[in-house]
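ok so I'm stuck.
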Amino acid sequence: MNNTYDRELIPVEGKIGVFRNSENSSIVNTNNSAYEEYVRRRNIISKKDENIKNVTTEIENVKSEVDGIKDELCEIKSLLKELIQQSK
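replied:
not stuck anymore, here's the structure
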């Protein structure tokens, strides 16, 4: 803590690398490794959220395809019944 900015920072009791700015009372975290870990965890969560969104979209697409297949099978079944009735 050698520059002018650092002299404005007051250590927060019980917190390593955490200071209060004496001019505006803001909290400043100077612990770069903790910040980097936070960013890393935030990115992991963001990627997981994106994966969940993609999987959800894929599930909805599959549901739609299954519904379409069901409709087609009903139509085939109906046509087969009609053919059977005509052949009698």
